[in-house]
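Question:
Write out your own:
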Amino acid sequence: MPIINRLYYRFRAFFSGRYPRLFHFCEERKSIIKFFFAGAFAAAVDLIALFIFHGVFHWHIIIATSVAFLLSFLVSFSLQKLWTFRNYSNKRLPRQLVLYLSAAFISLNINAAAMHLLVNNLGVWYLLSQIIVNLCLGIINFFTYKFVVFRKTKDEA
């Protein structure tokens, strides 16, 4: 058994024995919690990569942003597929990549439209607007990924 699995099972045993109620709460909402952490990790990769490429290496902002987005996209896709939704089959990988990228593109456009509406039309503070929009898009994306992009087929179940 790989060391990461041994560490995971030790942590799980410790957590369930020490905090049984919290463990039960988290266990019932495991995929949502994993979805949040995978997304937060991908966002951190995006920001760190952008800082390195633009701030340290002085790449042009468009190139640095594009490469950082590509890296965070690959991290996000991999974590959501393999960790959050435990979809290990490569049979539908190209289709899943296209669907995931499509969902990201749609989310980007919804984000822009919702931000315009909240900030320019309704006068909501821009940071609060982004939090609201991200929460709504996060909920939509969770269900899109779970039931469309990474849904289990009969031969994968």
Remarks:
- The chain has six helices and no strands.
